[in-house]
């Protein structure tokens, strides 16, 4: 996180963090600090949203981006902006919630079969629908000649993040954290067989509804602030699980901490590797995450065949 504050188009030394006479003091605290906080909070919420989906669906490759939730929120933001709705963070958050919720309901409906929800169909329908929505979003941005304006939405990024936006982001983060602490035991029991979970007093429908609300809230504010950022919700829970095999209620804090640190590091790379030009944040997170998943899958295969 310190690297994220000091690094960018121009690097500043550590004294710039506290020396108000330094030329970098204002840049660090007015521009880079909100951006760093946004990266940490968004990374934390996307990571825990992915962990919740994986626990609730008992599917290890569940993720807001693979379920189309990110893409639905992203498309709603772009359409709302094109039709002339205000571009304030509150409107963006509201549009993102609507888009994320509609998309999630639609994907869930597609995944339902005679025996209930089919995990394979859920991933396939979510992936296909996510690609479809992303295609529409890119098409709208090209047809309206606004690709540059929607750059952060389409490829992810925190440039231009302001302190008022951080205020809303922090409020939603605390609300999400409150819900998770309240539901942590019930969400953990959802990983068990449904009959066992019910026998332990878990109200399955209520828990799932609240869990979905947490995922939609976390994803919507993340997209409204940072755009379409993939992998975090898929890869971070696997990385935590690699080192800590305990259940949800004992590892969700670890997921949030690692997700925040990972996305902050990706943001640092995106603005320093090709300075003064900035790489798409979504590409950085997907590239780093993809390398880890390739290694993880290969290692898992070696263990399986040994």
UniProtKB/TrEMBL annotation:
The keyword Membrane applies. Keywords: Cell membrane, Membrane, Transmembrane, Transmembrane helix, Transport. Its main location: membrane. InterPro entries: ABC_BtuC-like (IPR037294), ABC_transptr_permease_BtuC (IPR000522). The chain crosses the membrane at residues 33-53, 65-83, 89-110, 122-143, 163-183, 204-236, 279-297. Coiled coil: none annotated. GO terms for biological process: siderophore-iron import into cell. GO terms for cellular component: plasma membrane. The keyword Coiled coil does not apply. It is a multi-pass membrane protein. It is found in: Cell membrane. SUPFAM superfamilies: ABC transporter involved in vitamin B12 uptake, BtuC. GO terms for molecular function: transmembrane transporter activity. PANTHER family: FE(3+) DICITRATE TRANSPORT SYSTEM PERMEASE PROTEIN FECC-RELATED, FERRIC ENTEROBACTIN TRANSPORT SYSTEM PERMEASE PROTEIN. Belongs to the binding-protein-dependent transport system permease family. FecCD subfamily. This is Ferrichrome import ABC transporter permease FhuB. The lineage of its organism: Bacteria, Bacillati, Bacillota, Bacilli, Lactobacillales.
């Amino acid at each position: 996180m310190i690297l994220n504050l000091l690094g960018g188009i121009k690097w500043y030394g550590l004294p710039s963090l506290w020396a108000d006479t330094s030329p970098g003091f204002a840049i660090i605290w007015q521009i880079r600090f909100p951006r760093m906080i946004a990266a940490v909070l968004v990374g934390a919420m996307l990571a825990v949203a992915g962990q919740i989906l994986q626990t609730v669906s008992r599917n290890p490759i569940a993720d807001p981006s693979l379920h189309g939730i990110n893409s639905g929120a992203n498309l709603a933001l772009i359409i709302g902006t094109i039709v002339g709705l205000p571009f304030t963070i509150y409107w963006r958050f509201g549009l993102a919630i609507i888009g994320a919720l509609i998309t999630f309901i639609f994907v869930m409906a597609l995944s339902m079969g005679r025996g209930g929800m089919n995990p394979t169909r859920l991933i396939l329908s979510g992936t296909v629908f996510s690609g479809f929505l992303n295609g529409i979003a890119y098409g709208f941005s090209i047809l309206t000649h606004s690709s540059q304006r929607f750059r952060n939405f389409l490829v992810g990024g925190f440039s231009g993040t302001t302190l008022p936006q951080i205020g809303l982001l922090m409020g939603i983060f605390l609300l999400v954290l409150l819900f998770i602490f309240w539901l942590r035991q019930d969400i953990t029991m959802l990983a068990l067989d449904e009959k066992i979970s019910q026998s332990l007093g878990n109200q399955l429908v209520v828990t799932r509804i609240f869990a979905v609300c947490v995922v939609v809230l976390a994803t919507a504010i993340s997209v409204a602030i940072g755009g379409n950022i993939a992998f975090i919700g898929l890869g971070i829970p696997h990385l935590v699980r690699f080192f800590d095999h305990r259940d949800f209620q004992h590892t969700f804090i670890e997921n949030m901490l690692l997700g925040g640190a990972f996305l902050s590091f990706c943001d640092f790379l995106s603005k320093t590797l090709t300075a003064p030009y900035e790489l798409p944040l979504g590409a950085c997170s997907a590239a780093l995450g993809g390398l880890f998943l390739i290694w993880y899958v290969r290692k898992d295969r070696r263990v399986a065949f040994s």
